[in-house]
Write a structure and sequence with these properties.
heterodimer; A: mainly beta; six-stranded mixed sheet; five-stranded antiparallel sheet; 0% helix; globular; B: mainly beta; seven-stranded mixed sheet; four-stranded antiparallel sheet
Chain lengths: 108, 113
């Protein structure tokens, strides 16, 4: 079993829909990251969180440390949100352990 | 530039050759990371630098892989005697300090023929 599990693996949504991507992890962590990888390969860090909730524009990330679970929400989704969303956790210092990613496609 | 810069962006080489990949982090960022992403797979951690020291080399897949960082700036990842399974996108990231968000470069796409 991977240390970081994401679901779903693939997600197709209609423009405007509310989207949730989930991440569960099995180890103790110091922080959890949500990353976005566009089709061209570039990776952007969306959030880094260790507790509670963070919001940036239409994106919201939450984490429940006790349940070892995080969610990334996208409100009012748009085709430009189409990308791979990757959950990663910090353990043993600065080493990041990555989930397999969720491929999101938003159709207009 | 303002971001993490990697070169070359693409590298095609024959099996058995040595390759060097370069990463220029954001100025002032003390932490630097190397990752690998093989086709259709997730990201893998390779090595992490704090300053010029590498406290964690646990991700280097074999002794053919090495990395160094000088001047608390540029880092090079060297792969000796390349094998076909080394084909991947090699990504570099930097952060201001340990535990801070990481900024990624666009990667070097390495293809071993």
């Amino acid at each position: 079993k991977n240390e970081v599990e994401q679901s779903p693996q693939n997600l197709t949504a209609q423009e405007g829909e509310f989207i949730t991507i989930n991440c569960s992890y099995s180890v103790g962590i110091s922080a959890l990251h949500w990353l976005q990888q566009h089709p061209g390969g570039g990776i952007v860090s969306l959030f880094m969180l260790s507790s509670g909730k963070k919001k940036h524009g239409r994106l919201i990330a939450t984490i429940n440390i006790q349940e070892k679970h995080s969610s990334l929400h996208i409100t009012a989704s748009h085709p430009r949100d189409s990308a791979v969303y990757i959950c990663a956790v910090n353990r043993n210092g600065n080493k990041l352990v990555f989930g397999a990613g969720t491929i999101l496609r938003v159709k207009s | 530039g303002a971001g993490v810069s990697q070169s070359p962006s693409n590298k095609v080489t024959e099996k058995g050759k040595d390759v060097e990949l370069r990463c220029d982090p954001i100025s002032g960022h003390t932490a630097l990371y190397w990752y690998r992403q093989r086709l259709g797979q997730g990201l893998e951690f390779l090595i992490y630098f704090q300053g010029n020291s590498a406290p964690d080399k646990s991700g280097l897949p074999s002794d053919r892989f090495s990395a160094e960082r000088t001047g608390e700036s540029v880092s090079t990842l060297t792969i000796q005697r390349t094998q076909q399974e080394d084909s991947a996108v090699y990504l570099c990231a930097s952060s201001l300090q340990e535990g801070q968000p990481q900024h990624f470069g666009d990667g070097t796409r390495l293809s071993i023929l």
